[in-house]
Amino acid sequence: FPSHSLQAKMSRPLQARRLEGIDKNIWVEFAKLAATYSKVNLGQGFPDFPAPDFLTEAMTRALGGGNHMMHQYTRPFGHLPLVKVLAQFFEKLLGRDVDPMTNVMVTVGAYEALFCCFQAFVEEGDEVIVIEPFFDCYEAMVKMAGGTPVFVPLRPNPPKDGKLMSSADWQLDPVELASKFSKRTKAIVLNSPNNPLGKVFSRGELELIAELCVKHDVLCISDEVYEWLVYDGKQHIRMASLQGMWDRTVTIGSAGKTFSATGCKVGWVVGPDRLLQHLRTVHQNSVYVCATITQEAVAQGFQRELTLYGKPESYFVQLPKELQQKRDQLVQSLDAVGMKPIIPEGTYFLVADISQFKSDVPDDPNSDEPYDYRFAKWMVKNKGLAAIPLSNFYSEAHKKNCSNFIRFCFAKEEATLKAASDILQKWKQEKTS
Question: Where does the Aminotransferase class I/classII large domain lie (predicted)?
Fold first, then answer.
């Protein structure tokens, strides 16, 4: 062979234009920091306690139960036992008929469900309204599809009685929200309960969004992965259940969040066939089919919960009670040292104000990083406690306006939360000594 053919390097640009500006990922960076420095990881959102026994037992049965078809491809758009029980469940939740074959699609976690939505519905020139703070993949996926994200913030309204803030105190401005809708608006992304804030949108707030969607003929991508994790007697209201919204809403769910097993990577989309047919096109030309064994196990888990629906022994009843206690434990630990928590109504996250700890990490006017980003990196390296900066959940234009907060995950073992409390108490003592 000619020597030049062996040594030649490609000089043409390789990166597709749709990847520009979305190559960095905070989760990769902070996972590495946590693995290297942390004694306690309250950063990334996964439980460190076991999944329920009935789910792991179902997985074991599916893996070694003698049915060799569990090791082969299943139906591309969802294992039949799973889509059937999901349809039964959502008929109860939405109060309408749900066809398992046309109104339900199973995905590789909620992440793939989101990807399918943006790829199926969004194209060049489309705008997608995103409520801040937001799970960071929304912005990246909208841009990758060729669309333009349009941001509208939840604005804090602190209580005047000196009490701790609640996630309910962060609200949309109705006039500001309405101003974001235009002829170019294709969809709005709703995340309730909201990650990172833990806000559970009220019926009034959802009806406002629904009214605007109907008025402007806009789709709603409703990310409801924390639907069962709601506290203090609050109620999770499903957007698709509101008048006029079934026909324009895709509802996304997650077995990882529902059954405290984020590694199983089973998600789903529920909605009208006229919308899901386009998601199926994306799914069949990308992932094609999800793991049969995990779908079978999740199907058995849902079958159990359908039998126990609304009963005290239901996992969907027990889990939020347990997590509310863990939430309250972390709230108390943070409040005791002056890192003021915003009490979440749902999810397994809470946001805390770090203003009283800013003296530990001097501001750097020459840094391009938001303050909370530098604070969180300093905290994990110097105190061994991992958390995530809230600015990661905001658009670039608004990152520095919210840089006095960090996000913690409280879906952890008692020992983990106790270790975090010990770190905070020692830190407070060092500050006052």
Answer: 39-420
